[in-house]
From TrEMBL:
It comes from Hanusia phi. Keywords: Disulfide bond, Hydrolase, Protease, Serine protease. The lineage of its organism: Eukaryota, Cryptophyceae, Pyrenomonadales, Geminigeraceae, Hanusia. One of its GO terms (biological process) is proteolysis. InterPro entries: CUB_dom, EGF, Galactose-bd-like_sf, Peptidase_S8/S53_dom, Peptidase_S8/S53_dom_sf, Peptidase_S8/S53_subtilisin, Peptidase_S8_Ser-AS, Peptidase_S8_subtilisin-rel. Belongs to the peptidase S8 family. Residues 542-655 form the CUB domain. PANTHER family: CELL WALL-ASSOCIATED PROTEASE (PTHR43399:SF4), SUBTILISIN-RELATED (PTHR43399). It comes from the Eukaryota. This is CUB domain-containing protein. One of its GO terms (molecular function) is serine-type endopeptidase activity.
Length: 742
């Protein structure tokens, strides 16, 4: 447990009270260290059997006594990472983990340390529980790390070493190992982040003796073997920046920079290449990257690092840039015309603040990567879609845009601070292509949108009532003047962004109108109208199943704090329902100990069930709207043996009033939900709701979710003023004049 910075390799070796000195036979630690920085003493096989960074040094923490069980410090922030950081380590490789796919306290501790030490990158093995989806294991579920999956090795890797004999393996490095754990995480994030060779890896062998000094090798497989391979590559990336290669592609130490952890991670994911993987026993390539099987793919540093004229592309790096909340940073790159290298790629990474352990949504600061090509087409980070509509990524702190066939002209790369709870966020941006960075030209809109709209990247987004390229033309109202002679909009209308409109009891008819522009927006909005206290309510019964058949109702754990050792189960089986929607109105259960599980069931008996995304729910974050497309849903609440919280309250319904032609327009129900629709909304949406239940003069309207594109998509709320009733003139009678007799 001492430090010797002059040692050839191991500057520090630590063991703990529950571990012992040394390794076991076929030791795990010896093998992975050889892959990171082993330096072969045999001149005949130096290149083939060196580690990824053979001149690097090591600080080693021994967390096992028998090679199988682990002893971890109670707090990694206090007892694991600080020592390595204090002796100068900037990379930390971890070939251990669990089968728990949640964002555990261990994952949270790693995120915290990286956030507090912005130049320290942690790599973690994804796990060996593949090939199923959602098999990623904590702490590989942390956000700020590099979670590493395993790929196949190559035939060239199986060279003979000092007479070592073994079977020949006809492998290709482009295939994902079948055992490699896959994403998504419970909150929908891509994991692993990257993939490195991890199958049949030959590296240093331990015979378990402290005195034999043998130099054999051993073959092992697993994401434990892939992680050190990636760690060695990450060390080379740090060396690239520290020794000044970035400036001109050749070594120039005086031009060296100290990269942040987010920059090293950005380079690694930028180097990703698609890999073949097995899905339903069929080998296939992902339609795009990132992908839940492999993240950003196989690391190929030749595809990102620039070494002068021999490299067909340029590398542009921006590190420790800062964006403010609701600000967009612009960076422009001029692509050469008729270039032989046509790929343009931009990668954005930021070190996100840690989320509370067991959080349902772990992203704290939401940044968005956008790229506008010379034709003004917009691309969004990670190529996500929802309901057929392209959407911005609101789950990952690593985003990428790849344009395979880039043409000549200016590419505008934008980093948007969409939702920053801390006000500002530092980030790293990597761009490659046959490009040079230029000053961004000023983008103006025709006639400044006639003061009837907002200018977005040279295109007008018109306010309600206006249309045309410059918003100078009147547009027909969404609600006919024969229905609403006028509309008295809220003083704060239109609403935009993520701030919820204030709840209020409003006179009827209530008007809600929604407009989206020609490009991509957000997740949309959800509003509840009416009085939920009038609905039938069920508190459930401990250790029993309660089946509810009404078309709508309330689920709650009960009044006040719930009890310990509860297992309450509800099956929602409304008669003739095609869908069941569930929206939590209140949610506060003990984080990480008490849980609400939500399932889609195939029948009313719920003998076959599938857990809905995000489930189980814990903590105090209110879950988003949930839907079962079968018409059957099961909700299970469990509490542990100690500590109770206020609990939850949820409403369920069988109908959602959304922006489809059949659901918008006149709404005559006295209670319900209004929404743009499930999933992300599309471009050029124009929809309206007129809430007017017969005989009801006022209704509560409360917005529950709000995420629409700030400044460019709009939500209007107001009261309809009907035209005055048409009155007919009083009837008149006509009669012949009275005449006197002649």
């Amino acid at each position: 447990n001492c430090v010797n910075m002059n040692h050839r390799k191991i500057v520090s070796y630590r063991y703990f009270s529950s571990t012992n000195v040394g390794d076991t036979s076929y030791g795990h630690g010896t093998h992975v260290v050889g892959s990171i920085l082993g330096n072969s003493l045999s001149s005949d096989y130096t290149v083939s059997y060196n580690g990824g960074a053979p001149d690097a040094k090591l600080s080693f923490d021994d967390i096992s006594s028998d090679g199988s069980s682990l002893w971890l410090p109670d707090d990694l922030n206090v007892d694991l990472f600080p020592h390595a950081y204090s002796v100068g380590a900037k990379l930390h490789s971890n070939s251990w983990g669990s089968t728990t796919s949640a964002y555990t306290s261990t994952a949270q501790e790693i995120d915290q340390f990286i956030f507090d030490h912005e130049d320290f990158l942690v790599l973690v093995a994804a796990g060996n529980d593949g090939p199923g989806a959602g098999t990623i294991g904590s702490p590989a579920t942390a956000k700020n790390i590099l979670a590493v999956g395993a790929g196949d090795n190559t035939l060239a890797a199986y060279v003979e070493y000092d007479g070592y004999s073994g079977s020949s393996h006809d492998k290709q490095m482009t295939g994902l190992a079948y055992f490699s754990s896959r994403g998504p995480t419970p909150d929908g994030r891509f994991k692993p982040d990257i993939v490195c060779p991890g199958e049949s890896i030959r590296s240093a062998y331990s015979d378990g003796s402290l005195t034999s000094y043998q130099c054999s090798i051993a073959e092992m497989s697993g994401t434990s073997m892939a992680t050190p391979t990636c760690a060695g590559a990450s060390a080379l990336v740090r060396q690239y920046f520290r020794e000044g290669f970035l400036a001109s592609g050749v070594r120039n130490v005086s031009a060296g920079i100290a990269p942040s952890a987010s920059l090293v991670k950005a380079i690694m994911v930028h180097a990703g290449q698609p890999m073949w993987f097995q899905e339903s026993s069929v080998w296939t390539l992902p339609p795009s990257l990132p992908h839940f099987s492999q993240g950003f793919g196989r690391v190929d540093l030749n595809s990102v690092l620039y070494f002068g004229a021999q490299t067909p592309f340029k590398l542009r790096v921006l590190d420790r840039e800062v964006v403010q909340d609701q600000q967009t940073r612009h960076y422009c790159f001029l692509a050469a015309s008729q270039s032989s290298y046509t790929r343009f790629r931009a990668s954005l990474v930021w070190t996100d603040p840690p989320a509370p352990a067991w959080s349902q949504r772990t992203l704290i600061h939401d940044l968005n990567l956008m790229v506008q090509d010379p034709s003004r087409r917009l691309y969004f980070g990670n190529n996500l879609t929802d309901g057929g509509n392209a959407i911005k990524d609101s789950a990952n702190n690593c985003e990428q845009v790849t344009i395979a066939n880039a043409t000549g002209g200016i590419y505008r790369v934008m980093v948007e601070g969409s939702d920053l709870q801390g006000g500002t966020q530092q980030f790293s941006l990597v761009v490659t292509g046959d490009v040079q960075q230029v000053t961004c030209p000023v983008q103006t809109c025709p006639n400044s949108c006639s003061s009837h709209g907002s200018c977005k990247l040279g295109v007008c987004s018109c306010f309600l009532g206006y249309q045309g390229d410059d918003c100078s033309l009147p547009s027909p109202p969404l609600i006919s003047p024969t229905v609403c002679q006028s509309i008295a909009y809220d003083a704060s209308s239109p609403y935009s962004g993520t701030t919820l409109p204030p709840p209020a009891v409003r006179p009827t008819p209530i008007v809600v109108e929604f407009l989206s522009d020609a490009s991509i927006g957000g997740k949309g909005f959800l509003a509840m109208f009416g009085d939920s206290s009038s609905l039938p309510s069920s508190n459930g019964t401990n250790n029993q199943v309660v089946t509810l058949s009404a078309s709508q109702g309330i689920l709650t754990d009960g009044n006040g704090n719930y009890d310990n050792n509860w297992v309450k189960t509800w099956i929602l089986a409304p008669a003739l329902a095609q869908q069941v929607y569930l929206k939590f109105l209140e949610f506060d259960v003990e984080n990480g100990w008490d849980f609400v599980y939500v399932y889609e069931c195939s029948t009313a008996s719920c003998s076959s069930q599938v857990q809905l995304q995000g489930s189980p729910f814990t903590g105090a974050t209110v879950p988003d709207l949930l839907v079962s497309s079968t018409g059957f849903m099961k909700v299970v609440f469990t509490s542990d043996t100690s500590v109770t919280y206020p609990g939850f309250k949820a409403v369920y319904l069988t109908h959602l009033h959304d922006c489809s032609s059949s659901s918008s327009g006149l709404v005559q129900a006295s209670f319900g939900l209004l929404s743009d629709g499930m999933g992300a909304y599309g471009a050029n949406m124009r929809c309206s709701f007129l809430v007017q239940p017969p005989g009801v003069t006022s209704l509560q309207l409360k917005f529950l979710e709000m995420d629409i594109e700030q400044t460019f998509d709009y939500l209007y709320v107001g009261q309809c003023v009907p035209p005055p009733p048409t009155t007919s003139p009083a009837p008149t009678t006509s009669q012949a004049p009275t005449t006197s007799p002649a």
